[in-house]
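So, is this right?
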Amino acid sequence: MNETHVPVRGEDEPEQLREQFRQLLRYRWLIGGGVGIGLLAGAWLGVTGADSYAATTDIVLRAPTSDPFAPTLSGDKALNMGSERQTALSRSVAQGAAKQLGMSADEVDQLQSGLQVTNPPQTLVLHFTYNASDPKEAARRANALTASYIDMRKDQWESVRDSMLKSLQDQLNPVAKQNDELSRQIKQLPDGSAADSAYAVQANLLNRITDLRSKITSLKALDMTPGNVIRNATVPSSSDGPGLPLSLGLGGLVGVGLGLLGAWVRLVFDPAPRSAGDVARAVRGPVLGALPRGSAGTLVVGHTDSRAAEEYRSIAFRLAYDERFADRRRLLVVAPRGSMESSVAVAVNLAASFAETGKNVLLVEADLRTPSLTERLDVSAASRPRWSRTGEHAEGEWPSRGQLLVDAGESGAFGLVPGERVRNVPRALTSARTTRLIAEADDPDATVVVVAPPVLAYADALALVDRVDGVLIVCDPRTVHRADLMRIRELIVGAGGTVLGAVTHTDSKRVRARAARRGSRRRAPKSQPAPTPEPSNTPEPERHFDGDGSDTVALRTVRSGDR
């Protein structure tokens, strides 16, 4: 019984998280900037907090009452703690404290700025905290502000009581006067209905007088104390700040969070493809390979121990098993924009990899504006190709030079048709000679690899798409936009071609500089001739080291005298 293993999506989640974390690390400068800002803020907090001392007091508030031990007393309903807190922070309290401390009116704002008042939940407690640079001054000001608040609240309660007493007394005096006059009238009335009516009116007045006098007595019996201090401020023994080590630690953690947040925002709005999957979705084709760092611009084919050589072999085999390429064996290698260095290197090394599989490979440099491949390969001799051994061609028509044979060391050899400067580039690329040249791939054992200028810089590549319909895009995901890759695919498909896939690379400026220095050293013998070596039937390939540290074999042109 055959069992089919279905991968669980949960198994891919750790890999996705690792990939996302690696993408965030692309913006190390943002993360480092966030950490730096956090450390600076922590250092500032630690230094400024070292000179700050906090003194605290606590007050339990209570509403005015005639019986403080009554079980039904509910102070939380009579008091609004939010309003009490705002009252404690008011300028009136600060002015009263300033008078107690002997401070001038100009110093009231400074005194008020150091005060903080909080109310613990579900309590009638006001927590006063005063911060100052001097511990003794912090305690003295905290006690003064607490006392000023209590005095002000007591004065306010007493003012309200006095106002109510005056109002009740103003109501009582007319009623008492009316009662006295009615009493004198009753004494003069004979017994009868008139006296009975007067007694009824007097009874109502007496009830009113009793009620008013009861209220006045209750108000006079009220305890107007607004609250009790349950903790006085003492001189603090240590600063209120968290300390420099803790501040730096907290600042570093906050900085890491800010840096990661900034990196994530930058990653979300980054127009460049963040991974091989983004490149594949943009070109709607597979990513056939990812070159090792710094090896994209090296015109070499390595041995079996070279990472770059193995990657090129893998790309060549994947193309060989692609039906779209295997049917016609024509490959156009292009870059999105900028330099042709990476696309030329990929085309040369792929040509050598195809030659290694036994194919008759022809590399065509379709750069007719700034051709440079012959100089980079140190070309000095050529033979006329079979497609130009008969017939004449017009002056300035491309290709007019002979076909070069490039020795790829252990990989074998392949042909090279170098680019030439022409007056009319579009006409040369669409000429019949170019068509016959590309038709070399009609041989079942032949493969044609064409390298053209960047697609978004010139239309040269699009002029070749109808004959070299299989296109390989070479790009650095860090320097190309997803919109550019999608635009390239639209142009290629619109011209009748097919995007076979993409090859990604990560360029390195230092590696390019070392490669340039090595190239200058290799070209030095032209000005300083070395002793001529004895002829050999088998040319020895030139070795140097690739960007990954492994030895590689440089591509060398076989001269006609060596064959």
Q: What stands out?
A: The first strand starts at residue 53 and ends at 61. Residues 53-231 form a domain with the Bacterial polysaccharide co-polymerase-like fold (CATH 3.30.1890).
